[in-house]
Amino acid sequence: MAEQRRIHVVVNPAAGQDTPVLGVFNTVFRECGIDWDISITKQAGDAASQARRAAEQGADIVAAYGGDGTVAEVAAGLIGAATPMAILPGGTANVMSVELGIPGDLAAACRIACDPASVVRAVDMGMVNGHHFMLRVGIGFEAAMVESADRELKNKLGVFAYLWSAVQNLSQPIMSHYQLTLDGALVETDGITCLIANSGNLGQSGVNLIPDINISDGLLDVIVVQQASLRSLFDILGSITGFKQAVANGEQTPLRAPGDEISETLQHWKAHTVSVAAEPVQTVQYDGEVLGQAHVQCEILPGAVRVITPAG
């Protein structure tokens, strides 16, 4: 008789809305013949250590229930491990689940984690100033949005908290001069925000900030927004909330050579290592976590974590 598979779920109780989930876990995992247990995070760092411990103790799958910050922490705990990660969306924003085709419905996401036909995909991760991220680093306007949308506001408004925060910050966006070092080459430019992206998904299936950003290509995509236009605002909002709308006529902005201007407001490069010095210094966020005001050092970790994704 085959040994029963076991899934360990790392739960962030502070993520998203106050929704009961244990009944869903119990129903779906029992239907699928999966043994399961959970651990609860209380502070930053718990998700990574709990995921690492579960893998070391023989869990067949380690699942993250929470938002993108929780997903990134669990992934960090599984770097280099053979144990795959499952994503169970439960936070204010769940961009990584959309990036990988995982449904927002919790029961459906649990079934994908249990399905032997599901595909395990090697996914890149990034490092910023010693912290791991899966989505992107935001410097300037985007980080100010995240910083202003505190937990109380997100509990009241959900993803609309970011929209409210953006409106507050848009009136006086701070321009900075960026010194970018991209794989050793120096580039200088001005802008209101700089994004260092592992994923370009905007929270809607098939809609991306830049068309060819790939979470498994072993590269970081560096994007500078050069002026506070309405188009740029939607691009930035979309990177956090998924509210960016497609171009009205259905056309996407064509991708040009790295370093060329993609539009009147965006510049784009690709690199393995990235450092950013902003003058004046701007606030930095990574996957929804505020790092504070700092110069930025980033690198890519190719294929760092294995993630369960839907078959086909």
What does it look like?
With 312 residues, this protein is an alpha+beta fold. It has 2 domains: 6-116, Rossmann fold, CATH 3.40.50.10330; 131-302, Tumour Suppressor Smad4 (Sandwich). It is built from 9 helices and 18 strands. A 6-stranded antiparallel sheet has the order 6-5-18-15-8-9, with helices on one face. Strands 14-13-10-7-16-17 form a 6-stranded antiparallel sheet. A hairpin with a 2-residue loop joins strand 5 (119-128) and strand 6. The radius of gyration is 19 Å and the shape is elongated. Mean pLDDT is 80; it is low at 153-167 and 239-263.
Q: Bin the strand percentage.
A: 25-35%
Looking at the structure, the CATH topology of the largest domain is: Tumour Suppressor Smad4
Text of the CATH class of the largest domain: Mainly Beta
Number of helices: 9
Overall 3D geometry?
Answer: elongated
Oligomer: single chain
Question: How would you sum up this structure in a few lines?
Answer:
This protein has 312 residues and is of the alpha+beta class.
